[in-house]
Design a protein that fits this description.
Blueprint lengths: L1 H5 L5 H17 L2 E8 L1 H5 L5 H19 L2 E9 L3 H13 L8 E7 L11 H9 L3 E2 L2 E2 L5 H9 L5 E4 L7 H10 L2 E3 L10 E2 L3 E7 L1
Parallel strand pairs: 1-2, 2-3, 3-4, 5-6, 6-7
Antiparallel strand pairs: 1-9, 8-9
Helix pairs in contact: 2-4, 5-6
């Protein structure tokens, strides 16, 4: 279903409209800050020009802050199921100063966890971290606590998306205060994912 919706996003104008309307809905809910996870690879591989994509999300971000008072920031997300090609492309877009959007603050890894080993993405996270981005991969939602350990040790995670399997290994949870890592357990695995359009999920703060 999600990928079917993504296929409907064909132009930079679609991206801009979707981003702006997500911001409008967040403002209606009195959200003052939202970090939207965006998967640019999902759009650029479907033919949307990368420069136009960046301009679209940035124009929507600035308009949302000016009109609604809601501050948006971006997390660029590797779709793990798409492999190292997607990792390279996402990292390039996140670290190239000619393309990197002003609102980009973090770097993530999403998609299915089963069969997508976290350590293989270490070189890409190293480059993103060196460029000043925060490491915020998903881990331990549909796999065991070892995936959480891998995200902490190989990807230097500062925030873990989900991480619910850590409950089966208390030592991984005890590690988080000393590393500064945080868990973001947004919903149980049986709930529908909160994703919007071409590539968006939300971490937000209300007033």
């Amino acid at each position: 279903m999600y990928l079917s919706v993504v296929d409907l996003i064909r132009t930079p104008e679609d991206v801009r409209l979707l981003t702006y309307e997500v911001a409008r809905e967040l403002a209606r809910q009195q959200v003052r800050y939202a970090e939207l996870t965006i998967t640019p690879f999902s759009s650029t591989r479907r033919g949307i020009d990368e420069r136009a994509f960046m301009d679209a999300i940035e124009d929507a971000r600035k308009a949302a802050e000016a009109e609604f008072g809601t501050v948006l920031r971006w997390c660029f997300d590797i779709p793990g199921e798409a492999g190292l090609e997607a990792a390279e492309e996402t990292t390039r877009l996140a670290t190239d100063d000619r393309l990197r959007p002003e609102g980009l603050v973090s770097f993530g890894l999403g998609g299915p966890e089963v069969g997508v080993e976290r350590p293989q993405f270490k070189p890409y996270f190293d480059r993103a971290i060196a460029a000043g981005l925060h490491s915020v991969p998903h881990a331990g939602e549909t796999t065991g606590p070892q995936t959480v350990w891998d995200a902490l040790t190989h990807l230097r995670a500062e925030r873990i998306g989900h991480g619910t399997s850590s409950a089966r290994d208390p030592s991984s949870s005890r590690t988080s205060p000393s590393t500064g890592s945080r868990w973001r357990c947004a919903r149980p695995p049986t709930s529908p994912p909160a994703r919007y359009g071409p590539s968006m999920s939300i971490r937000s703060r209300s007033s």
